[in-house]
Structure formats: structure tokens, C-alpha cells
Amino acid sequence: MILPNRMSSLGLIACLFGAPLCAQVPEDMGPYPVGMRSVSFQHSLASAITVTADIYYPALSSGNNTPPDQAGGPYPFSSFLHGYFAPPSFYDELITHIASYGFVVAAVSTQTGIFQSIIAEAHDAHALMHWCDERNLISGHFLEGMLLPGPWSAVGHSNGAAAIFDLLAWEPRVQTIASTEGNWFAQSTVGQFQGSLLSIGSSEDTLAPFSSNARRYYTEAQSARRRVWALIEGGAHNGSLDFPFGGSSLSHATQHRLHLRLITGFLRGEVQRDENTYYHLVGSGINGEPVTREGDCAQPILWIQPAAFPPDGQLLGVMGRALDDLRLFQASAGSGMWSSHGSTGGGGRLIHETVLTSIGSAEHIWVPHPGLDSVRLVGDCSTSGAPWRRTRRVQLDLP
Asked: Would you say 126 and 64 are in contact if contact means Cβ atoms under 8 Å apart?
């Protein structure tokens, strides 16, 4: 079992004896068939005279130009920005995978030649986002009614990750970013970004060494609401591509699977508010994988999974900031919620307190009192006496 980061003793116990038995992991395909359409258009926001793009969407059946699943919409909207000399077709499996979880993903296909302009790709991606947003309101268009109004997310690889941060200067609706093996160009928008950021690096990346590129995005994003770092040990620069390109000690199949897990899981956690998926990204659900993780969350994350042992236990996980004080509270369903600052008023009861590890997270196995059929759970985090920062509130129906 690979444990790249130091874990608390409780976290280790949870890993060995209380790990949930989860049938699906984020790298499994989602419930939606995925259609894809290639488009071209002119737009005042674009750098190119004609912008070309591939749009992936939940569909009635899988394939090119298949009818969209408009009845299931609207869906969250995401943009995909490619790396150097790599059209969207090189990332077809990744983009399809994201869309299979109920996202519309627009992948710009300009700037794919030998001479790439990052700022031009950013302008074209910005134009594409607005073009899709405008078509969302046009009767009879395949995008009619397909897009939620916002906020938006963006996924980028290599130079495409850098292009996202150029795009931020013009588009405030982008509030969630998944950057993989990003090239560092020191844009001021990195430090100003107040949304949620996942930065993925690979330890054997020789094209954009992680310590001076992908890791910089994580360390410089000081204003982010949430930032998560994941280092794929033994990975190279192109694990997000459909095919191997360049060698490393970790197989391309494993690298690719981990990119599917991390990127799609992060979008589900942040955009679709399914924080339980973080168990597979930063919790003990990723133990055994060659991934070193870390997080810094001004707004802490709370994930809950049924524990394998004891059979009536629940695994509660939180990611906040390194060495945060953590308090977890329980209240019976229907009671008033407690106040902050660790108060047990309003029917709340302290069930666990600890200090988060140096990677910003901890897990605890909680066994509900017999006879409970529904409870409310919440966590508070604080550093050095600072105001408490609250997780989401969860009402949990017990078996």
C-alpha cells in the first residue's frame, strides 16, 4: 500500500479497517451517453477569423452528431483548452468522460499547429464559451436549453492550462479550474483567482518539470477558495492524452486513469457539489495509488462514506488547511443547527476533534448511536485561534 503522505493514526486505521466499499470510482464512465459535434463560427471575441471547436454533450445515444439529451438538462458548462500541437481529438477519452457525468464541454481546436499562441487560444476559447452561451437561447439549436447559466469551469493541459489564466482576465464566470501539467507563465490572475483550483503535476515530466510549473500554480493561488495539489508519481507530461507520448516509469494506462479520476472527480465535487467524491481524490480512497496529494481550503471540504468496518460506521473526512484544528458535530434531524465556534447549542454534539495533517486532511470513523435513523453532520476548522470555518451541512439517512 502506497502512503505518499504522512497520515494520522486514525487515518491509517480508517484506511486499513474502515475503508468504504465503493462500487464506483470517478474514473468509471458516468451515466450519460455522450454526443460530439464539430462547429465553426466567427465571433468578435476571437483571435482567429474562424474558430473551430468540438462540443461534447449528454446525448440520447453516443456518437457524432447524435441528438442532445435536452430533457435531462440544463447541464454545467466547461471549456477544454489543449496543449501544444494537440487537437481535442487527442483528449477524446478525457473530454467524453467528463461529459458522461452531465457536463457540456466545449473544446477549442484552433492553435494546434507547430506555432502556438497561448493568448490566441485563450481568446478563441473565450469566444467559444460566449458562442455556446448565446446558442443556449436560440430555438432549435442543438445547444438550446442545454447550459446552466453559470458559474463556468475550465480544464487545461500544458499550454492550455496557462491559457485559462489569460482567459480569467476577461471572464469572471470561470470559477473552477482543473490544470494538468500546466506550463508556468506567471500570470497575475493566478494569485487573484478566488475560485477552486486543482493542479496536477507528474514527477517525471521533463517538458514542464512540476516543481517550477504545475506546483507553482498551486503555491501561487493564495486567494483561491479551495486549492488541491496532486502529484502523479512516475508520470510524465502527457498522461491526459488518449495515447502514450513519451516514456516514464508509470504506465500510460495508469497515468490516464488517474487523470480521469482527478479531473472528473474534482469537477463533480466543485461544480456539481458532490463532495463525497473527494474521498477518492484526497481521502483514503486514493491510498494505494501513486499519487501524493495536498490541499488548502478556506472553505473546508466534507466527505462521508459508509465504512466497511464496523458495519454500522460512517467514515467522515475533512480537508481544510495544514494543522487546522478540526471539530466534527452531530445533531439529530429536525433539531436546530448549532452555532459556530465549536458551540454545541441547538442540539449539536461534539463527536470528534483532532488536528489536520500536514497535507490538510483527516478522516474519522464514527459509529452512530443505536436507534438513530437520520442525523445532521458538520465540521469546523480553525488555525491558531482564527475564526472557525465551516464545512457544508449534511443530513445523513442511516440504514
From this structure: no
pLDDT at 334: 60
List the domain boundaries for the chain.
9-21+299-397, 34-280
Angle, vertex CA 270, rays to CA 158 and CA 307, nearest 5: 115
> Where are any strands of DSSP class E within 126-281?
152-157, 174-180, 196-202, 226-232
Put simply, whether the predicted model's pTM sits higher than 0.85 gets the answer yes
The whole-angstrom separation of Cα 24 and Cα 31 is: 11
The arrangement of secondary structure in 34-280, i.e. its CATH architecture, is: 3-Layer(aba) Sandwich (3.40)
Domain topology for 9-21+299-397: Immunoglobulin-like (2.60.40)
Q: Which residue has the cell 493564495?
A: 222
Q: How far is CA 32 from CA 64, 187, 222, 281, 330, in A?
A: 15, 36, 36, 22, 35
Q: Kindly report, residue by residue over 302-354, the tens digit of the pLDDT.
A: 999 999 889 889 999 999 999 999 999 998 766 555 444 444 444 579 999 99
DSSP category for residue 379: E
Spatial contact of 34 and 59, defined as CB atoms under 8 Å apart: yes
* Over residues 215-232, mean pLDDT: 99
What integer pLDDT is reported at residue 83 of this predicted model? 96
